[in-house]
Amino acid sequence: MPNTYKKVMLVAIAASVLAGCSSNGNSESSVKPSSSSSPSPSSSSTASPASAEASKEAPTTLKLAVIEMYPGVSFDNKTTHYIEEKTNTKLEITAIPGADFENKLQIMLASGDKPDIIQLGTDALEMKFTKSGLLLPLNASFDKTPNLQKFGEDGIWDAMKHSDGNVYAIPIRGSAIDNIPIYRKDWLDKLGLKVPTTIDEYYAVADAFSNKDPDGNGKKDTYALSGWTANGGFDLSTSDQVFGAYGTLPNSWLLQDGKLVWGSIVPGALDALKFLNKMYKGKMIDPEFVTDNSARFKDKVLKGVIGAPVYRYFLMDSSNLNNYYEPLKQNNPNAEFVEGGILKGPGDSVGFRMLTRRGWLKTAVLNSSPHVDAALRVLDFLASDEGNKYMNYGEEGVDYKVEGDLLTKTITDDQMKQEGIGQLRLAFNALYDQTSPRYRELFDYAHKIGYKDPADGLVVENNTKQVELDQYTGQQYVKMIMSDGPIDNMFADYVAEWKKRGGDALTQAFNDAYQEKNKQ
Amino acid sequence: METVHTYKREEPATKRSSRLHPIYKDRHLYLMLLPGLLFFIIFKYVPLYGIVIAFQDYDIFRGIRESEWVGWDTFKEVFAYSDFWVIFGNTLQISVYKILFGFPAPIVVALLLNELGNRYFKKYVQTILYLPHFISWVVISGIVLTIMSPTNGVLSIVYEWFGMEPKNLLADPTAFRIILVASDIWKDLGWGTIIYLAALTQVDPSLYEAATVDGASKWRQTWHITLPGIRNVIVLLLILRIGLLMNAGFEQILVMQNSAVLEVSEILDTFVFKFGLQQGNYSFATAVGLFNSLIALVLILGAQWISKKFGEEGLM
Amino acid sequence: MNRTRRMRFSVLFLYLFFILTGIVMLYPFWYVLMFSLSDPLRASVNKLNLYPSHFSLSTYKYVLTQPFLYTGFKNTIIVTVFGTLISMLLTIGCAYPLSKESLRGRKFLFSLIFFTMLFNGGLIPTYIVIKQLHMIDSLWALMVPSAVSVYNMLIMIKFYKGIPSELIESAKMDGAGDWYVLLRIVVPLSGAVNATIGLIYAVSRWNEFLPGVLYINDQSKRVLQVVLNGMLREDSLANQPGLQDLASSPESIKMAAVVISIVPILAVYPYLQKYFVKGMLLGSVKG
What we know:
- The complex is a heterotrimer.
- Chain A folds into two domains: 54-175 and 358-435, Periplasmic binding protein-like II (D-Maltodextrin-Binding Protein, domain 2, 3-Layer(aba) Sandwich); 179-353 and 453-519, D-Maltodextrin-Binding Protein, domain 2, CATH 3.40.190.
- Chain A has 18 helices and 16 strands.
- Chain A has helices spanning 49-54, 78-87, 101-110, 123-131, 146-151, 156-160, 185-191, 199-211, 240-245, 267-281, 294-302, 325-331, 372-383, 385-393, 413-418, 437-449, 463-482, 488-519; strands spanning 60-67, 89-96, 117-120, 170-172, 179-184, 228-230, 233-235, 253-256, 259-262, 310-312, 337-339, 352-353, 361-365, 400-403, 406-409, 450-451.
- In chain A, the strands form six sheets. Chain A has a five-stranded mixed β-sheet. In chain A, strands 10-5-11 form a three-stranded antiparallel β-sheet. A two-stranded antiparallel ribbon of chain A has the order 6-7.
- In chain A, α2 (78-87) packs across α13 (372-383) and α10 (267-281) packs across α17 (463-482).
- Chain B has helices at 15-18, 22-25, 27-45, 63-66, 73-80, 84-102, 104-115, 119-130, 137-148, 154-161, 173-200, 205-213, 218-243, 250-256, 262-265, 268-277, 282-309; strands spanning 56-57, 68-69.
- By secondary structure, chain B is an all-alpha fold.
- Chain B starts with 14 loop residues before the first helix and ends in a 7-residue tail after the last helix.
- Chain B is built from 17 helices and two strands.
- Chain C has 14 helices and no strands.
- Chain C has helices at 2-36, 58-64, 69-99, 106-118, 123-132, 140-143, 150-161, 165-173, 178-189, 191-207, 210-214, 224-232, 251-272, 280-286.
- The longest helix of chain C is centred in the first third of the chain and has 35 residues, at 2-36.
- In chain C, 48% of the residues are buried.
- The model of chain C is unreliable at 234-247 (pLDDT under 50).
- Chains B and C meet through α3, α7, α8, α9 and α11 of B and α1, α3, α4, α5 and α7 of C.
C-alpha cells in the first residue's frame, strides 16, 4: 500500500472531537498500553470474546468518520458512553452532514486523514475504495467477530461479497423500506369496487379513481398514478404493479433461462408502456408525474390526489413511522389505504422491487488503521443483539418498556435523539418491535410479494455507464408514456440505442459477474 | 457649465517624480498590492497543481504524486460520451438566452429606479426587488412548479379562462427553456441592479441640469447622459458575463430539470455533477473543468478584443 | 401642457410598473413566510400559499430550539463581519494600485490575478493548502481562502478609474502620499461602490455553505447555513429511497429555516442606502 502521502501533518487535524471525547487531537500517540493499571469499567457479560479480552487493557482511541444522523446533536451522550464502556474504547467521532457527505469524506482521506472506521453511501465509492486496497476484508476475522458474522448470515454477506470473495463493508438498513401497491380503501368502497387482482381490473379501478370523482368534490382532481423526478432522473418504481403484470421491472435485472436480462428492454416493457400510455390518455396519470419531486409526490398521496400507486406502507401504520399516517388522517379522517397484490397479466407476473440488501449506508474499517482489533470489537458489539437493541431503543425500563409482544418507547423522539439512540449506526439493523401489529403484518407481506433481484449484490466496475443508461431510459419512457401516437417504433429505437450506448456490454459484464458469483 | 470632458485624464508631468525610478516612486502602491498578491499565490496558485488530475487516473489515496498518468484519455472519454455535444450545445444555448434577456434587464430596471422621485418608495422597492436573490433555487423551483402546475396552479386558472386544456409546460422542451430564463431573471433581476445603481452615482448631475435647460426629454437624457456615464461598467460586466458562458446555471437546472426535458436541459455542470462528482471521479470533473476554463479564456479574450475594436477599454 | 401631461403619465406608469414588479418579486418570500406559518401537517407544497393554512408558530418553535442554532448565528456573524472586512481590505489594496495606469508591471500583475478567475486547482489541493496552514476547524478557513473575488475587484478598479485624476494629482502636489490619497480621497469618494461590493461580499459570506461543511468538523464552530441545512436536507443522498427517513422533516420547517436565515441579512441593507447618493463624487470636486 503506497500510503506515504502527507503523513507529516496528521497531528494538525483532530477529527471532530465532540464534547465528551476529550478534545485531545494527538490520539495517534495513545496506542494501547498493555501495562495499564486502571481497571476497565466494562461489566459486559454477554459480549463477544473479543470484548471480554479487551477489558484488561486501557481504552483504545478510535477515530470515526460517519454520516451525521441527528444534525447538531452532540455525541457526548449515554449511548456513546455505553458503547465505549462495553468495547473498552474511546470514540473520536467526526459527524459529516448528509449534504456532500461522500465528497468531504474523500477530501479528508485525500489530505491524509485516516480514520479507523468510515461510512460510505454508494456502491461506486465502495468499489473505488476496494480497488485502491483501502478497506479491510471483514470476513478474514469473522472468527473473532461472531456477532458480525451472524449479522449477515441470511444472505447479506452474499450480497456484500466482492468478486475476490471478500466482504469489505457492513450494510446499514434503516426504517425506510420496500414499497407495495396501495389503494385508497375509502375510494374503492365509495365506488363499489374491490382491490384489483388483474391488470384489467386495475384499469377499471384507475379509471374510476381518476374520472368518477372518488373524493366527491365535483372536480376532476384525482389520479390513479403519478411519479417523481430526482436529479433529472425519472423514478419508475411507482408504476411497478403495471410492469410487474407484464412480467418485467424496468431498471432491474430479470433472470431468464439462467441469464440476466435488463427489464427495461424486454417486450413486456413495451406492453406495460402501452398500458401506461393508454392510462395517460385517459387522464389516469397525473400530468405532473414527470415534473414533481418526491416531496410533492408524497404531499399528493397524503392530500388525496393519488389513489393507486406503488408506495410506502407506512401510510397504513398508525404508529406514524416517518410521519406518513398522521398527516394523511389530519387532511381527511376518512382516508385509508389498503394493500394490493401482484396483478395477473397476460403471462407470468413479477413482484415488487425491494430495496437492495446492500443498504443505503455502509460501514467499513480502513486497512491502515493501527487499531483494527478495537474497531472490529466496536462493530461486533453493535451487531450483537444487545448492541443493536440498545441502538434501536436504548435502555430497557428507562427508554422503553416491553408489554407482551409489543415494545413501547417511553421517551419522545427528541429525547431519543439527545440520548444518542440510533445516532451511531455502524452495524444497524432496524427492529420493528415498537410498531403496530398491522405494520409487522405489512412488513411480512411486502417480503412475500417482493421481487428477489437476482443481481442484488453484483457490482461491476463501470458504474457510470449504468447511471447514463438509466437516465436515458427515464427520458425515453417518459416520451412513450406521453406520446400521442403509437409507440412500437419508439420502443424499438430505444432498445437499439440502449444496446448501442453500452447496454450490451453492461449486460455481458453483469452476466459474467453473476456466473462468477454463482460458481463460488 | 462643466462637462465630463473637463475631467479627461492628462498625463501628469510633475518634475519631482520624474527624477525617481518609477518602481521606487510607486513603492507604496506595490506595498498595498502585496497582501492581495500573497493571497492569490497561496490560495490560488499553490493549489493549481491540481489541474494535472485531469491527466491522471486520480486515486485519492495515492495522491497526485503516485496516481497513474493517462494523458488525454479522460478528455477522450468525456468527448466520447454519446450526448456530449448535445450537452455542450444546451449549455451555450441556455447561456446565450440568459445573456440576451437577462443581461439588459437589470440595466433597464436600474435606469427606471433612478427615475423614481420618492426616496422611501425607491428604498422599499429596491429591498423587495432583492428578496428573491436570497431564496435558494430549491425553494424557487418548488414555487415555479406550483405556479406552473396544470392541475392546481396559477397557470391552470389562466388556461381555464381561455377554455383551453391545461398543459404541463415544465415537461415541454420549448416552454422549459423559456421558464429557465424567466425564473433566472425573476430571481436575480433586483440583485443585478445594485452595481448599476452604484455606477449611476458617478454620473455628474450637472449634466442633467444642462440638458433640462436645453429642453432634452427624459428619454434623450437617458440615452445621451446616463447610459454613456455607466457604459464602462456595462461593458465590463458584459465581458465577464460572456466569460461565464459555460456556466448556464447549475443549481437552477439541477433542481428544475426532469426526464421529459433532459435533452434540452442537461448542461456541462449537471453532467459533471452526475457523472464525475457523484461517482467520485475527480479526473473526469477536473478534465471538464479545464475544458470550461479554456473556453472561458478564449471567450473573454475575444470579448475584450472586440470591445477594444469598438474603442472601449474593456476589462481594465 | 401636452408635455407635462405626458410626463405625469410616464411617472404614473413608472410607479405602476414598480408596484407590479414589486408584487411579483415579493411573492417567493411571501410564499416562504406563509408556508412557514402553517401547521406542519396541513401545509402543502402543492398550494400557492397566499395565506397560512392553519396558522401555527410551531415551526419557529422547532427551529429556534435547535441545538447549535445560536452558536451558528454567532459564527456566521463573526465570519460575515470580519470576513467582509478582510475581503474589502484585500480587494481595495489590489484595486487601487491596479487602477493606476502609470503603474509599472500593471498588465502583468493584472493578468496574474485574472488568470485565477478562470483556472483553479479544485477542491482537494485547496483543502490540503488550508490544512497545511492549520486552518481546518477554524473560522479563518471560512474567511481567508475565498477572501478576494476577482470579479468584484474588476468592478472596483473600474470605479476607481472613474475618479477624476485632477483630485488625486492636486493632492499629490500638496505632498500627499499614496496611502493618504487612498484612504482620504479614493475610498471616501467611492462610497457607493464600496457599499455595493461590501454588500456582495457580506451576502456571499452569509449564504456560504460548502466551506462550512468541508473545513469545519467541530459542531460548536458550525455556521448558520450548515446548522440550518441539517433541517433542510435537500442533498442528493436524501433522494435515494433508503434515505427518506433522513429527509422527513416537514416542508414548513424548512421554510421557517429559510425565513430565519434571510431576515438578518435583509436588515442590513437599508443602512447602506445612504451611500447611494447621486453625484456625490462629482459634487465633491466642485465643492
